Amino acid sequence: MNMNSLPNMPFFPVGHPPKTMNHWIPTVTLEEMSNKEYDVIIVGSGAGGGAVLWRLCEKWADEGMRIGMIEAGDLLAPTHVRNLPTIPADRFPEYLYNPNYTSYSSKYSSNLPEAIEVNALGGRTLFWTQISPRMDSVEMATWPVSLKEMNDYYSIAEKAMNVSQSFFKGSPITETMIGRLHEAGFTDSTYIPMAADLQATYQGEIHSNVFFSSISFLARAMKRSFDLAVRAKAVEVYAEGGSVQGLRVMTPEKKSYTIKAKNVVLSASTFETPRILLNSGIKGDAIGHYLANHSGVRASTTVPRKKFPEPLGALGVFIPQGEHCPYMLAMLDPLTWHTQEQERPFQEEVRINIGGYGKVESRFENQISLDPARKDEFGVPMLNIDFSYSDNDQMVIQQMIDSCREILRKVAGDNDPSVYLMPIGSDYHETGTCRMGEDPATSATNCYGQIHGVEGLFVADNSVLPTVGRANPTLTTVAFAIRTADYIFETQKNNTKKGTMIAKK
Description:
Layout: H1 30-34, E1 37-43, H2 47-59, E2 67-71, H3 92-96, E3 102-104, E4 116-118, H4 137-140, H5 147-161, E5 163-164, H6 172-183, E6 190-191, E7 194-195, H7 214-221, E8 227-230, E9 233-240, E10 243-250, E11 256-266, H8 272-279, E12 295-304, E13 316-319, E14 327-332, E15 349-358, E16 367-375, E17 381-386, H9 391-412, E18 418-421, E19 457-459, H10 474-504
Parallel strand pairs: 1-2, 1-11, 2-8, 11-19
Antiparallel strand pairs: 3-4, 5-7, 6-13, 9-10, 10-11, 12-15, 12-18, 13-14, 14-15, 16-17
């Protein structure tokens, strides 16, 4: 075509972006953050930290407030790893246990040898199994928050995380197993509640990010404005006159920066949050104490394939055993989940696995403490971890073993299934080291997650849970974190109003 024959009219301006990105989320440097004063700084980007960030950005959309987040790890994955088609089930453990971003509590002096932390944006929510039950009302009756308020915040958290019982509903093996359990007397057996977005892509609204992670919280928060720095290690909180002032943060090159903030939210983990507090000289009789996690058992057997309908589907059954039971059982095998890119081989025999989570007593003597004789690369004392099961905890473990055997005998016909104790800490459900409560002698924070005696210093991760209960903790941590964010927002708003009124006078 002769260019001279084109119509005499302007070309459409294609344009180019004024700046480009070299990774999938905008970040800033610690030097940039040190030149600002923030209304809120959040330390840690896991479930609790992500929930606080999202909620505050949503609340403060038009308020002009400055919010920042720092993460000790680097960028790892832009979503839950199971959403990535290049990481099928059989390769999932290889990615999960990569030492470049996972660290075991055995790096400390530990009685929880299998407990791991994930040093990356999104934390352990990049790998978790998405099991999201509410805590039993019997358990929450002793907490410093009313059941009504907890249920209100559970509803908000479940909506934000897409929690439902629909993930396994309709799966032939799940439906068959629930029927057999009901016939065997386990009448409260039901579908596992999962944090998974199962809504279909429709009218241009994409729903391909099925499994929930904290990255989804960060994505929603980006509709507003916040600063994010990665590879930023929080080592010390500054407080003066009973109020938080900010915190000291270090780069991997050991350069130190001070970030000023009116509110600091620690969401670094059940190990790292109290470690920061203790290293900062924050006083509290309960800080670092009342460490709890779930005890665990696993039982398995095989059943001939012909005893199940075709197609097989995936197995996901919850067996609550009544609200007063001190443990919860689940039939689940995440390694059987597959994507459309994977070919699922035919199984001659079907393996049935039961996992048990047992309640562990919250005891003062189960604790973490600083070891001044050993320091990490940033000069922060390492942790000593003291943990053991009580006599009552061991009774619960035996009850779980007996229940697993009874279930597999009744629904699978196996009188001698394989039963194993799970290594301590392998469920990654540590809680309690900054527990919430009314009495500073037995709790680290008040009912809103604020450290006793330090205005503006909050905790929003698993460590704030008053007791471990028997349910997986992530949903409860998110519910608490959203509630803490709401409290920070209301407090800051009231303080701003008071300041405006004083200025007018």
